Amino acid sequence: MKRILVIDDDSIIRTLLSNLLHKAGYEVVTAVDGNTGLNLAFEVQPDVVITDYQMPRINGLEVLENIHHQSPSTPVIILTAHGDMALTIRSMQAGAYDYLEKPIKVDELMKIVNDALVLSEQSRSIHNQIPLSSLKVLEENSFIGKSAIMREIFKNIGRISIIKVNILITGETGTGKELIARLIHHSGITRENPMIVINCASLAENGQDSELFGYCKGAFPGANANKKGKFELAGEGTIFLDDISELSDSNQARILRVIQEQEFEKPGCQGTIPMKARIIASTNKDLEVMVRDGKFREELYYRLKVFTINIPPLRVRKDDISDLVNYFIAKYNRKLNKKISKVGEGVIGFLQSYDWPGNVRELENCVLQAMVLAYGEILEKGNIMLTNTIKPWLDESKNNLISIEEMEKLHIMKVLEAVNWHKLEAIEILNLTRPTLNAKIEKYGIRKVE
Predict the structure, then answer these.
(1) Is the pLDDT of residue 311 over 50?
(2) What are the pLDDT digits (tens) for 369-418?
(3) Range with the lowest mean pLDDT among 51-60, 112-121, 226-235, 403-412?
(4) What distance in Å separates the CA atoms of residue 166 and residue 401, rounded to the nearest whole number?
(5) Which residues lie closer than 8 Å to 285 by C-beta, 6 or more apart?
(6) Rounded distance between C-alpha atoms, residue 45 and residue 385, angstroms
(7) Where are the domains of the chain?
(8) 314 with 173: CB under 8 angstroms?
(9) What is the mean pLDDT of residues 254-272?
(10) Which of 51, 52, 139, 321 could bridge to 8 as Cys pair (CB 3.0-4.6 Å)?
(11) Residues 263/273, Cβ–Cβ less than 8 Å
(12) Separation CA 423–CA 439 (nearest Å)
């Protein structure tokens, strides 16, 4: 009979899991805390361990690490009532078989337990563990999301960040593909090395060898010193090929050759240089269609998509909007010298009613614009502008970005036009005093269009 160890300081959860697993035909051993659980684990040698994360003295991650130190093949499932991105990634990196949030879904738990038992039988010797990344790095290179679909992505990042394989990240514009690439880089075995970003759309047809591979002194007229290219600068880190679908055919051939040969030539130098970096590529286009239409090299496509992560659009993970808004407020409070600490009633519901065609980038710009207009410590619904006037600063081109003052001017103009220049209505919507509104009208030279 398969033996399962359940560790949880909540007696109700212990009883619930024990009864559930007994009915399924398993022998169950329970422990009230991490210390007791570790002693039992080494004594009874369970086939699977289910442990709570938040416990006195020793938490679930420490239980996981201790068990895997003694028995790397024992699957450990972590339960938590307060899941987040960083904890999900750390759990998977430390070797957790899976990570579930309370309240527990019975069908989901039983499937995971059954699969874990199969794995336990088949691969007792398998063990992948790396030191935990520092929380500071994860905070600096984080991705916000607690929805079920994002939790699965974080689990996969936890797994693949400790294996140097090529990765293809797909998703609509504004979903955060580069953020995911940075999270992969800084979460795993490449984090101590550089991450080099290559904008594929901007690679020139002429001179691209110098940019990508560098050159040695005397390689051509004007080459007066050695230069390192992006592939050499990356070392054993990460090369991020942003907008891979925009690569010209000749540059596709160059990149493919480097991936195939795992080395590259530096113009003007003798010999070759090993290519040790991991390649992460991103695209907002369907590369399979491009391959079928002869616009993208099939072999390069398959070389890049050893593992694929598809970032869902914001409209299908609206549960994450609340966390995203809080994150952006904290981010821009510092930059704008604001002290916004509260979100007004109806704000999140209002934001969740919108489909966000520009995805997370659009939401971020919307929150930024609202914070510019907010007064005091509360972000109000009236500060939010979901109209065509926000489009100028959603464009990815730097040439189309505008200043915060211009954002404010556009919004004041829009509100004044909407209320036919009735200033009492305008100051209620804008959350400004009448003198402040008059001062801004004068400052920006806003005039009523007759």
Answers:
(1) yes
(2) 888 877 667 788 888 887 544 444 444 444 445 666 777 888 888 788 77
(3) 403-412
(4) 33
(5) 245
(6) 59
(7) 3-122, 137-310, 315-444
(8) no
(9) 88
(10) 52
(11) yes
(12) 13
Fold matches, 137-310 and 315-444:
no
CATH of domain 3-122: 3.40.50.2300
For residue 427, pLDDT beyond 70: yes
Instruction: Indicate the range of 94-103, 314-323, 355-364, 419-428 predicted with least confidence.
Output: 419-428
Tokens encoding 221? 């007229």
Q: What are the backbone dihedrals phi and psi of residue 227, each rounded to the nearest 5 degrees, phi first?
A: -135, 135
pTM of the model: 0.67
Across 47-61, 114-128, 140-154, 321-335, least confident range: 114-128
- CATH H superfamily, domain 137-310: P-loop containing nucleotide triphosphate hydrolases (3.40.50.300)
What distance in Å separates the CA atoms of residue 305 and residue 176, rounded to the nearest whole number? 18
Tokens of residue 129, six digits: 């563990």
Cis previous bond, 194, omega within 30: no
Which CATH number does the domain 315-444 belong to among 1.10.10.60, 3.90.79.10, 1.10.8.60, 3.40.630.30?
1.10.8.60
Per-residue pLDDT for 184 more than 50? yes
pLDDT in tens, 37-46: 999 999 999 9
Report the mean per-residue pLDDT for the chain.
83
